[in-house]
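Students often ask why we bother predicting the structure of a whole assembly rather than each chain alone. The short answer is interfaces. A chain on its own may look different once its partners are present, and contacts between molecules only exist in the joint model. In this exercise we take two input lines together and write out one structure for the complete complex. Read the inputs first and try to guess which parts will touch.
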Amino acid sequence: MEEFYLTEEADACTAAGKCEENKKHQSNKRAAATEERLLLHNQHPMKPWQHARARVKENVRCVWGILGSVGSVEWYCLGALGVLTALISFFMDLCVGKLLKAHSWLYNELQGYRLLQFLCWTLYPASLCTLSTMFSHSVCPQSAGSGLPEVRTMLLGLDMPDFLSLSNLFAKVVGLTCTLAAGSAVFLGKVSPFIHLSTMVGAFLDRLCVSIRGEENGMLVAAAAVGVASCFGAPISGVLFSIEATCTLFSVRNYCCCFFAAATGALTFRLLAVWNREQETVQALFKTSFSTDLPYYAPEILVFALLGLLCGAVARLFMHSFRWSLLFIRTNRVVSRMLATEKSFYSGMVAFILGTITFPHGAGQLMAAKLSMKQLLASLLDRQQWQVLSQNVSVMVPQKGHETLWLEWSPAGTSVFYTLGVFLIMKLWLLVLASTLPLPAGYFMPIFIYGAAIGRLVGEGLAYMFPNGIHSGSSSCLINPGGYALAGAAAFSGAVTHTVSPAILVLELTGQSTHAAPTLLAVLLANAVARSCRRPSLYDALSLVKQLPHLPSLLRIVSCLFPESRILLGSVHRLELESFLHHQTEGHNELKQLADGCSVQPVPVHISAESTVQQAYGVMSVLGVPQLYVTDHGRLRGIITWPQVICKMAKHTVVR
Amino acid sequence: MEEFYLTEEADACTAAGKCEENKKHQSNKRAAATEERLLLHNQHPMKPWQHARARVKENVRCVWGILGSVGSVEWYCLGALGVLTALISFFMDLCVGKLLKAHSWLYNELQGYRLLQFLCWTLYPASLCTLSTMFSHSVCPQSAGSGLPEVRTMLLGLDMPDFLSLSNLFAKVVGLTCTLAAGSAVFLGKVSPFIHLSTMVGAFLDRLCVSIRGEENGMLVAAAAVGVASCFGAPISGVLFSIEATCTLFSVRNYCCCFFAAATGALTFRLLAVWNREQETVQALFKTSFSTDLPYYAPEILVFALLGLLCGAVARLFMHSFRWSLLFIRTNRVVSRMLATEKSFYSGMVAFILGTITFPHGAGQLMAAKLSMKQLLASLLDRQQWQVLSQNVSVMVPQKGHETLWLEWSPAGTSVFYTLGVFLIMKLWLLVLASTLPLPAGYFMPIFIYGAAIGRLVGEGLAYMFPNGIHSGSSSCLINPGGYALAGAAAFSGAVTHTVSPAILVLELTGQSTHAAPTLLAVLLANAVARSCRRPSLYDALSLVKQLPHLPSLLRIVSCLFPESRILLGSVHRLELESFLHHQTEGHNELKQLADGCSVQPVPVHISAESTVQQAYGVMSVLGVPQLYVTDHGRLRGIITWPQVICKMAKHTVVR
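Now the answer. The structure tokens for the assembled complex follow.
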């Protein structure tokens, strides 16, 4: 009976996807055997609906055969990676949105009760941060932090299974949702943890691939791209940011895979928004409506260049404070002890402090504290001139949607220069304080918003100096401070992370390509300032502090290599050697030379014991060989394999 | 007297840029010595205005010192590369524009004289093509063709000095100008030769760098990026296209250099247009004005995907014809003999045939032949529905500028489907015919326009099927055929060149980011179709036909290595060895061991004589070493140096 089913299925399969089956049979007989064994196991004679189940399985196999003939498993996995990550991103955004709305509703309901409002404002984020810390640390301690430095290390070839486990995925999703729901008081973002999240999804799909066809895809680079793409719905900058932030040497062969996965992710993310009736069609996330006829005058390019230099300088100040704070919480006895034992309490306390400072009836009204992260960015990218609007606030025409957000920046007619200045000064150290929180959180989005505020300040200043625009020739156009905010956001985030791709990110985020050229200029200049004197980037600094493994000398590994020394002649295939030995033992009378029976393969590259692991790593990856022969004066000292290189690297720490 | 001037200058220099001077003195004393010698030579006692000249030189040195303290020479060279290439591009466009205008003026003046118009239409491009061929072949035969395959080979590390000479630059500039001035009848483009041009400029600046500070920059990758960027004013896609089309492994370290040079080039190119009053400010080259509120409905994404698949299929058809034509002109005796001896005649004849076929009073009126390349693209990207317009042509409101270009596509009320169909069928083989011309010309732009026409046809068809737009919910929006033209252009050019970056190029070219997501999708699908079964791309096909050098086995080189065999212990620095020998010869009584006097450096990597040049090349580039030791059983067989690897590769041809 069982025999019969199997044969039938095999026939159906052969008919449906003969070519695919053949390929499969040739390449991984082992996987097929496992499958058949499972099938046999499942078809226990006592199980019900045997015929129906067999037919379903048959159909599934047919579909699989057809799919396999259209494209390889790799591409389906890449597509699935994009869709899955986008789904996680979308539903996380949905949850965060609801939680933020609940907070805002509660706060507004308590209008008139100042104390209750204060408690609502401070305890809500404090409890969410405590929950986030507790949850992530109890389920998987590795889920705290941004995760991007670890992803970089993994992309270097290091195995860090703890960082790719399902429990980590779960902890990170819940923890990150809580962190983001704490809102703009805590001022933390989503991007870097999401890159980590999508890497975990990628690793999971990789394992699935292994079980299906017995080999890995290496989807980690693509996964990093998908993370950014499905956070912002920006596929192009997603790919470029992930290359810049995580790789040192990029194979152009991976380009298409990355783009495919990122495009799937971004498209799914945006289509979900359409399906949820947030948007009518696939649109940019922070759509702006700058004038396209005359977005800026040519002389303004100089101001954009100066803005880039300014952003670079502020980025150096920020990185200095950031590194100092990271050092402080490690060296200060009180804080480090608290972080070792009472993480949740520390999180709650810091969130409470942040809430107190940003309380809208206190200092918060000078920092537009009522706006959420998204609203902050949307308001800063506004094309209107706030200073002019705030002066004519009495004769204001009724506005709707995002166009009223600027009112938060000018409470009771306060000058916007004052509020923007307070925002910039306060948020710098508040962000540094928030970055010490031991919970899943990213720093890209806050940095991006901070940069937008710098740009806005410059833009408003320029608009104040030239109220009728910079004339050149007959026509005139007003200064658009939103354009400066755009360039500032890209330049500052580019300078902090040492990347150029934020210039493309703002283009995709806003759907506004009028300012592409000056933005790119500002980003390049900011990068030049930030990178001078070989300062580490944000992710470098985090890697250094976390003492993530680096590449030490090979000398530390060779001790485990063979003690005896023999001249290396070449290598012989195991199968050939076995058949040779078989012949010998079968009693053929003439004792042949090894070289007569087998073809001795020459060893193309020897490496000496004095070389570093970095060199071995480089040579292995460029030659694509799984092992290298370590020789000393031609004598074999040992063999170093790829897993050894990777594993030994993990035991040593950064010494930069 | 001379002494005195020199000292004074040295003092001034020290005061102005002491730090820079110190660095300079330490690093390249030789260059400084050469400079001083030149100075001495110049200051002949008979020369006039010695004081004034000395002061000028002093000032130049001071400025150089200050510049050197701001950034390294490399960055100035990159900037200069961008500016120079943009200048060439701009003035070439200016010349081509004037020549095209002259042709159009002459043609219109001859209105009524059909025969004279025919002669004007055919002989003008024929004579220009003849001139282009004659000039380029008499000055530098290597300047013919696109040049991109050669750039790819050079980026692999091969030296091809003929392709980087100044005479080639000159021949290419003049030849390309003539080719482009032949207009849309010949239907050839500018991009690939421009990449070659900017590579030549880059190589020239590289040589300048060598003479200034004694080391090369390796600006070739950046130069390729600048080429695209200053052709289209599109820095981002310039960098990405050059990476995809020319590299196989890209070092992320080069990212910033490439972006800086490309941004300088693009910005200069656009600012020159502002200066020339073509535009009021820095704008996209083919600015479109699609609706940003509702650019397309979500279900239309499916149509974009189908368009991508269609473009992929047509790209395969095109590549098949293209390869066939390349083979034909090599194997057909008549054509190959004519191409060997009468290149100019062949060019003139082909251009005459092309002109005859596209004559506007003949078949040309069904191909919108009167439009120039730029007008063709601008008209195809029009957002209006031509089919609707052509039906209501009697009640047409007066339009201006680009909005009347579509009239060429519907002469005397002909259906636009008919004209677009004729255009697609005719231009396919006309382009294949034009690609056989032995003159400097690119194929990217014609392919781009052809793809736009495919997209336009699909878009117009959809608009015809859904005249009131695809309804979904309450609101409705009309189909925008221009969006399909955009996606089609990107998808077809991406499919032919096997790149993804055209998706970003259309974004930058049109300044329209509403269609980014569906365009990327279409490009990816088109690539998937075009790349299946490992078909070569346009540039691969050209490389194969030109038999550009590939990487042969190392065995062919080792014959020139040392004949004696010695065990390799390590290497010793020349200076140390010299001082050791000096000590020995000075008569110190004890004869020391070499290892006591010098530090013997271990050799990290040995390579065996059986390895291939590709392996040697890979190992050298990943380790960054200038030579490798070739050993056999630990015995030194020879040393293989970087120039040797490169030079030996050049002697062997592709065997794919």
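Check your guess against this: The radius of gyration of chain A is 30 Å.
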